[in-house]
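quick one before i forget lol
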Amino acid sequence: LAGVGLGRITIIDPDRVERTNLQRQVLFSERDEGAPKAHAAAARLRGLNSDIEILGIEGRFEEANAETLLLEHDIVVDGSDNYPAKYLLADTTARLRLPLVYGSVTAMEAMVTVFDVRHGPCLRCLFPHPPQGWVPNCAEAGVLGPLVGMTGAIQAAEVVKLLAGGDRDRSLRTLTGRLWYIDARDMSSRQVAVLKRDGCAGCAGTAEPVHAEAASCAAPLALDAQAAASLPGALFVDVREPSEFEAGHIPGALNRPLSVLHEAPPELPNASVYVLYCAHGVRSVTAAEILGSSGVVGLRHLEGGLAGWNGPITSGRPAA
């Protein structure tokens, strides 16, 4: 879109660049590691096209700022990776009557569509409520990097068509009212019709907000590094992959990778409190949901993950 010459682009992201992002987020390079994604992306795009305005906002898109941020824009592109953000984007764009170019990629499957209540359905016409229970994200399920690029390119094409007249021009037909599903395992794809649903709260602008707690089974109590370190009788459980664990972990922690937890939740040694942690505090929430549903009590998770831990770190093979 920057190359096309879109006049103004705003990028909103609270995260920082990691090496593990680079296989699917090719806007960044190794030199950007640790930098805020919004600022790194804005700098890269300014280098591509200095004639347009690029604004990078390091922060979360949330209820308090949603309408203010979107009011100044004509089209919204969804590049989020969590259901509360997706539903907030959908509900806010529906209220403001803005088109939302939707994209979603998990593992080797992708979906792209345009939600525009002026001419068709909204997200809640298709999915009235977010899924419940364990829902893997990119870090947990893995994702095929080129498929992310394909999805983004399709989204960009839809933006250009919308700006060029979209469905008002008979020679241009956007994905409004159609969901394009792509399966990269055999490169098959299909399109299905998405119809406006009678009585849809999203289209009417009356939908209840989707909070992070509502999008999961149960939100475990978060502890910051200081509280976790001073908690008596706590057993730390590292839910990252063994290679991540061996590179560095909290001393005495057990390694129970999230990738196998949902298949067979393991028995844990007796402890009054289990503090689960991962790299940044995302996978540990899901791990707590899985263990909690299998009957484990006393679960907590380390807010910010190992990146926010200010205590000692050791390396070596996983504990038994």
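fyi The longest strand covers residues 100-106.
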